[in-house]
Amino acid sequence: MSTVEFAQHLSDHRVSEQERTKILQNPGFGNFFTDHTAVIDWSADAGWHNARVEPYGPISLDPAASVLHYGQEVFEGLKAYRHEDGSVRTFRPGKNGERINASARRLALPELPVEHFVEAVRQLVAVDQDWVPSGDGEALYLRPFMIATEAFLGVRPAREVSFRVIASPAGNYFGGELHAVPIWLSQNFARAGHGGTGEAKCGGNYAASLAAQMEAEAHGCPQVLFLDPTDDFSVEELGGMNVFFVLEGGTLVTPRLNGNILHGITRDSVLQLAREMDLTVEERKFTLDEWREAVANGTLKEAFACGTAAVITPIAELRSAEGTMVLPETTSDSVWGSIRAKLLGVQRGTVEDTHGWLTRLV
Question: What element of type H or E holds 293?
Fold first, then answer.
């Protein structure tokens, strides 16, 4: 079917306007959640069914639910933006719908029609639109996810699944004003392996990154960089972001998609905007040795990371057990700043959306 009807079971205990206003003054990231959630159930017999919007709250799961034992779970992340005309729009949601299906295939979960994915987002935002902040750099972060709910102990794909969308008002991912951040080089851990789940957006990948993330934080770094030790220690990605390098002569380099790296939607958008800025774009292997050499000879001009949550953030240093590599200082008129301004401008409606990237939700 091409459309899905959502029943509405709305909360009788919504957060008060006064309390919501207080939250939106300083939402942070992932600290507060809206009043409702959108849900669609799936079973092997009935397919996708029972679409609804219901009050946000705890999920009742059997202790033998497959997600708790075998990790059948995938998720997405996208944002809804308040425009000056009062409308609320989101950025390339169809791509998120396609990506959750790619992740679902890898985790042996059922695929959800992309139009159902987008409609679930639309239904939730329509009900909780008062939670969409309007401050600079703020948005409503949306977290669609799919979990295996069937109760059984046996290694096979679950026959019962729940797809849900929750939402959280969000400010700057790294907190405070935008600034260049140091990152930590992980030399003891790998985020993913060839043939594994690296390009799927599943919780296990992030769980596997946490030990390295803790190591990074112990060295004053909010993000950790992973390498591929089987391929000349080539750069892969950060714990939750893709990475880019600007070289002398207007060349933008990012690690190629090799099965280990998440197919970032912000990454893809950055590549499109860079080509329109007449930058030479290269998706290829970029090794740690090449990075160090480019810093040493002055051909590296910028390094930055990108993702839905943080958008684009410049990198100041690469720290490791061997020492610190200081990267060139940049300003907002740099390549990363220009791309970030265009990207945010499209998302917020201040720059013309020539690609058809925006979808109106309300």
Answer: helix 288-297
Single pTM value for the model:
0.95
Sequence-separated (6 or more) residues with CB below 8 Å from residue 107:
71, 72, 73, 74, 197, 200, 202
pLDDT tens, position by position, for the chain (362 residues)? 447 899 999 999 999 999 999 999 999 999 999 999 999 999 999 999 999 999 999 999 999 999 999 999 999 999 999 999 999 999 999 999 999 999 999 999 999 999 999 999 999 999 999 999 998 889 999 999 999 999 999 999 999 999 999 999 998 776 666 889 999 999 999 888 899 999 999 999 999 999 999 999 999 999 999 999 999 999 999 988 999 999 999 999 999 999 999 999 999 999 999 999 999 999 999 999 999 999 999 999 999 999 998 899 999 999 999 999 999 999 878 999 999 999 999 999 999 999 999 999 99
* Contact residues for 2 (Cβ-Cβ < 8 A; gap 6+): 113, 115
Residue with tokens 């909780």: 128
User: Helix/strand/coil (H, E, C) string of 151-205?
Assistant: ECCCCCCCCEEEEEEEEEEECCCCCCCCCCEEEEECCCCCCCCCCCCCCCCCHHH
Nearest Cα to Cα of residue 240 among 193, 183, 281, 295: 183
Residue 2 amino acid letter: S
Tokens 């985020």: give the residue: 191
